[in-house]
Amino acid sequence: MIGAIFQQPEGPMSRRIDTYLQDLIDEDRMDFYQAVCDFSDREIGTQVLQWEREHQLVPDDCIRKMAELGLFGLPVPEEHGGQGGDHLDLILMGLALAYHCPSAAITPGAAYSLGIKPLMLAGNEAQKAAHLEDLAEGRRMFVFGLSEPARGSDAANPEVTASRVEGGFQIRGEKCWSTNAHWSSHVVVHALTDPDAPNGKRSTCFLVPMDAEGVHYQEMRGKEVWKQSSTGSIVFDNVVVSEDCLLGEWNGGFKIMVTTLNGGRLFIASLALASLAFALDKCRAYVQERMAFGNLPIGRFQRVQDVILDMDIALERNLAWLIQLTQRYVAGKLSREQAAKVKIDCSRVASRLLLEAMEICGGVACLDEFGLIRHHLDLFVTRVGEGSNFALKTLACRPLLHDIRGVLQ
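Request: output the structure for the sequence above.
Response:
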């Protein structure tokens, strides 16, 4: 079992989320989760404020240490350099790392769910042999080129195009909001290849080296969310790649994208719950220490208690839901609608409650060292990342209206 790699001594659990998690997963998984929590406390929690104030991305040294723990290849088979786990291990990593810094958690998270996952889904044996071990061991990363300046939620119809030329393919256009671009050796490009084909059968994925002639990358500036995460804009100026760069089947890119995003939405939900878990622990300690109105703790007021309890209820409920759906995903039984719904609700509830948490803490919640403002800003990404909540609501609603579609028309 993967948890055996990270055996930890027994001790009291200081995080409220742990009291719920221990009843949802087995002992080996809990050992693994606690080991990643310890790493997060030691290597991220103690440094994230400095990273923020110095406008740093996640430092290479921290990435190296995450790689040494095996966090980049958790669900990758051992014969390919991974840990032989599954998607639940990835979710537990998200909960543990994002507790202090969501943008640090998304670095290994996206490296797998958006980088390795397409290769595992559609890569041929030569492609896997060339890349998978390096990726699983964290020596390099892939970035998924999906979003575009004029194509966010409408990712099924990319403006980036690819056409056949002698000896390979020519790719034109621009991708943006590309997570981990700074550290990546290749970009998985989702490109339009047959505009006249039926929806869902008009795009193809390609593996394009970041150093190929005509590929131009720059970090996107002015971003106030996920500040420690690399977010790149990648331009393809008539880039020509060989036949070997085709990932999966011609016009099969939509299936790769959809399957990839299903697991990614679960990971995004874990980041939202980690932020909620941090806020709950921070606030329940603060309201017992903050004295006012006769030198009494503000936690004695019912409205303050309401917020604390609402956070606790939401955390317990949504954590159980997320773990259950992740287990369905591992079993190959999770629908697109279910993945969308848990991502929508976790991000929406966490965002609302974190604002209320900031309000009961008052002005101190605006200080970077208190931590809540970081999670408040980063939660915005969970509402728009891996598909915006508004667009995903349309997707999730389709089964509900299917039987009465004719009546509505």
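The domain at 2-136 is CATH 1.10.540.10 (Butyryl-Coa Dehydrogenase, subunit A; domain 1).
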